[in-house]
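Supplementary Text 2. Reproducibility record for the structural model of the 331-residue chain.

All settings were left at their defaults, and a single model was retained for analysis rather than an ensemble. We include the record here because the model underlies the residue-level annotations in Supplementary Table 4.
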Amino acid sequence: MNKSITKSELKQLSEISKIIKQSKTFFIAGHVKPDGDSLGACLALWSMLKRLGKKAIVCCADDVPDMLKFMHGAQSIKKSVSKNAVFDCAIILESINFARMGDIISHSQAKKIINIDHHSMFTDFGSVNYIVPHSSSVSELILKIFEFMKIKPSKDEADCLYTGLVTDTGRFQQLNTNSDSHAAAEKLLNYGVSPNDIFNKVYVNSTAESLKLLGFALTGLKTYFNGKMAYMIITKDMFRQSSAKEDETEGIVNYGMMIKGVKVSCLFNEIDKNTTKVSLRSVKGFDILETVKKCGGGGHKNAAGCTLKSDINSALTIISDAFKDKLNNAK
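Retained model, structure tokens:
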């Protein structure tokens, strides 16, 4: 068990362990628009519970991105369950509330709810709420559950958890990376993970269409506030011209952070004429979360996002106005 674990975490882990041991049927889900961390953690949990002789299903309201379909169990993920199904326990990951996982089940369909998250914006909607904002990923928290219960992850489970860890830390380059992240990675490598294998499956797996979409975004890259803000836009027409899928925007926002002097990078993704999804990244010491929260979004201090009920040009104005004072005063 990690030496840095707190007494509060130990109590939560003990409660989670007790519920897992006493329960027979499980519902597992992460947030809509799944990423490597959400899916990796869900699938590792699913596999572990099945090894314990439990009945478990993983659900996701949206499709699994192509680059993550290699993970063990990905083909078994369901999009829905019977409205009459009742589970002994629902484990919900990385969701600020029950609706964030897509309202696949209702509260009444689970006798117990375990809420596990690592975001600083959260709600205590679970019977147990295991929330650790300083954790780099929810996969790191699931590894702690394995350790507390003295269950050694299988190679497949370790691959899932490592995928979550490496994707949510941006290959260990983002500001949420810490010593615990690397300690978790070391443990997972000892369980048989090949970093090169995971890297190739996740990152050396782009389609020509996704690279065309990236090209469109980079061609339109611009800066505001004397080079302190970089932004790119992706329109529905760009998706049509490139034939890229909507889940192939992952990582594009990070390119703006490569520009010297940029404090915050934004990617504006046109969902429809009246809806724009905004992804933001920032440098160390430049907190974007408080501003993004005012726009109805969430995330972390240096990686956040929101969805605005505005066309893409209006969304750009809203975000630039929201950051205007902070960027003008930034050194």
